[in-house]
Amino acid sequence: MEAVNLLSSNRYTEKQIGYLFISVLVNSNSELIRLINNAIKNDLASRNPTFMGLALHCIANVGSREMAEAFAGEIPKILVAGDTMDSVKQSAALCLLRLYRTSPDLVPMGDWTSRVVHLLNDQHLGVVTAATSLITTLAQKNPEEFKTSVSLAVSRLSRIVTSASTDLQDYTYYFVPAPWLSVKLLRLLQCYPPPEDPAVRGRLTECLETILNKAQEPPKSKKVQHSNAKNAVLFEAISLIIHHDSEPNLLVRACNQLGQFLQHRETNLRYLALESMCTLASSEFSHEAVKTHIETVINALKTERDVSVRQRAVDLLYAMCDRSNAQQIVAEMLNYLETADYSIREEIVLKVAILAEKYAVDYTWYVDTILNLIRIAGDYVSEEVWYRVIQIVINRDDVQGYAAKTVFEALQAPACHENLVKVGGYILGEFGNLIAGDPRSSPLIQFNLLHSKFHLCSVPTRALLLSTYIKFVNLFPEIKTTIQDVLRSDSQLKNADVELQQRAVEYLRLSTIASTDILATVLEEMPPFPERESSILAKLKKKKGPGTVTDLEEIKKERSSDMNGSAEPASVNASVVSTPSPSADLLGLGAAPVTNSAPPPSSSGSLLVDVFSDSASAVAPLAPGSDDNFARFVCKNNGVLFENQLLQIGLKSEFRQNLGRMFIFYGNKTSTQFLNFTPTVICSDDLQSSLNLQTKPVDPTVDGGAQVQQVVNIECVSDFMEAPVLNIQFRYGGTFQNLSVKLPITLNKFFQPTEMSSQDFFQRWKQLSNPKQEVQNIFKAKHPMDAEITKAKIIGFGSALLEEVDPNPANFVGAGIIHTKTTQIGCLLRLEPNLQAQMYRLTLRTSKEAVSQRLCELLSEQF
């Protein structure tokens, strides 16, 4: 209250202390907020610039929704009023920017929007700088309302870049005139396409040329601040040139300027130059100019000490690659792969695989490249890569014989990576007959070579080799008895792994009773795969973060005829979808014989779905830490579910009986818009029958610093074990982002607490004495054994905490009812802590075994 009283003082020091206290310590839900708002309104109306500045600073610092409701209509009037002091205009512009980022729906667009644009012509550069920040943010959401800012921004930029440093003395930083304002104006212009007015367009081109010319001039100071400011303006100008992508001369000049930075002694400049050139490589005007720097980039790959710069060099080689230099670039990337940092090896493998496939003129080169890739970095060659090799070999008759000969020779090495054994087993099983005429690769030699690797491989690879063996029975009848002896051996027929045992039994029986014609029909050559999008690109996109080049192939003007497209997975409206079953028809070919030497469905089904199914490739794997965050929400309903450098996901939930409602908040932590923002709640087939979810769509555009809300209505139809998955896809800075997290909708959310006396509790406890109704778990404590925290977690879990029921006062007992649409399930729980041993014993009894098991699993993870 004393702080509120200080706001009414006419002394600056007292008023300042009052505002400082409120900005830091007063909660927006405080009972005093109305008095505070009245004091702020009085200061805003006072026309005293000092008091107005303090009030505006306080509004911006608090920045709450309540502040936006109270003052969002007043601040624009102050901003555009003719008699407002320059310092107040600056504060008003930045205050309005803060409120817009917090609550964009409460900042009204009106007559002031056209007037605020004219602040770009203000005499005071501080006002122009603050106004530019505000207009840039507003223009990202409402480009049409602020398109008149383009000509004014060009005009102001022209005056800055053509002025001498002495003309803008107050805003010159180490001989660079107004560098912050220049950068902001260039960013504002990136919200729009090139100006249509020839005069404005010509003036903008002159500005950009002047900035590029100044970059060539000798430095006016040796201090690092001068070069930093000068380069900041230069890189932002290059970003605008790339954004417009319409002036060939400027694009080539920008490329040449960046080329000079590739050998600069400053690591940051080398990094930024490589990053910008990655984007330039996508333009039809500058692609050839970028290619002239290939030797410099390759040299950077070999000599650069900073791993992040080397990674950008790999990105640039990938972006500048075309048919004319593909073999050189792939060879250099393979050479680098042998000594590359482990953190980027998988990404390099994916890029090499994509380039080798996309620009392969001679498919024998493609086969050699992928086999070399497996030899150098087999541990980093994902299933998608070797699946793709097999798909291409099967689809191209001209390369099948060469592929069979090459893998046969590669398998003769004493140490082969398991992925090479998989590729060899598959290709020889299909096309081994093409090389069987050579005595050095006779059927028996092929079989013995593959079988020599059998005992060193994992179960999925052994299963694939067994399929190869039965294929050999059809291809090479002369070694049928040898193969049958292997299949008949105890190590196969009595194998501990059920998949291997089943294959051995079935294949042995098939080879014994089937006629030659039946064998030829069942074990015929795999039909060509339908041409689908390559899943290797999708996997590469999942690995990459913002500011990378994995999506550049989508916007390349120079299109080469290739074997597959590279479009991102199609976005879908926010809805509940079903995940494909691993037993689905993966290739759209109808029912395929189980004896084809494809990877075994039981072990690799999900991977095959990921590779060959259009729908499944759109769903990313769970984000790191997703399970830990999920566990924290078992006993609470509100909080932050996920957060990375781009996105924050918050939850607020409420449940009553078998119904619930969840509010999901998506916060954009960056200053750049998220485009095509598509959250999707995914339920498995089993979960869909137990849980009804209705999601409301969200705005596909999320502004920088903004937050959008999605409502999910929930109905529990019957008990369930799994949790839904929330998949979010969007574009950030031209890069496709795809992530998934578990949505904390668990069975205990539909708990209704039930109060019981000690007599009633133990009477009911005895009634639930069937062994199938009780689940017990004894486990080590993961957290400090605090009684109050334990009580809070049991209550948060949903059951009633029953006091003075258990004879041992140290124990905790609870009771409740799980409500579903179809039934109600009573539940009793007892938690017995042992402080000395730091152990717990948790006992749960319900009328349904699966419910007892699930609740026990969920609650055990909390202690």
Structure report:
The chain has 863 residues and is of the alpha+beta class. The two termini are 43 Å apart. The longest helix is centred in the first third of the chain and has 21 residues, at 224-244. Helix content is 51%, strand content 13%. β1 and β2 form a beta hairpin. The protein contains 38 helices and 17 strands.
Topology of helices and strands:
Elements: H1 2-7, H2 12-25, H3 33-45, H4 49-62, H5 65-71, H6 75-80, H7 86-102, H8 111-117, H9 125-141, H10 149-161, E1 172-173, E2 176-177, H11 179-189, H12 198-216, H13 224-244, H14 248-261, H15 267-280, H16 287-291, H17 294-303, H18 307-320, H19 326-337, H20 342-358, H21 363-377, H22 383-395, H23 397-410, H24 418-431, H25 443-454, H26 459-475, H27 480-488, H28 490-493, H29 498-513, H30 516-522, H31 535-543, H32 552-555, E3 576-578, H33 601-612, H34 626-632, E4 638-643, E5 647-656, E6 659-668, E7 674-683, H35 685-690, E8 691-695, E9 707-716, E10 725-732, E11 735-742, E12 751-753, H36 758-767, E13 774-780, H37 787-797, E14 800-802, E15 812-819, E16 824-834, E17 839-846, H38 849-860
Parallel strand pairs: 3-7
Antiparallel strand pairs: 1-2, 4-5, 5-6, 6-9, 7-10, 8-9, 10-11, 12-15, 13-17, 14-15, 15-16, 16-17
Mean pLDDT: 82
> What is the straight-line distance between the termini?
43 Å
Note poorly predicted spans. Answer: 545-617
- Number of distinct beta strands: 17
Outline: flat
Indicate the proportion of strand residues: 5-15%
Radius of gyration: 34 Å
The main sheet comes to: 6 strands, antiparallel
The oligomerization state is single chain
Count of helical regions = 38
Helix/strand class: alpha+beta
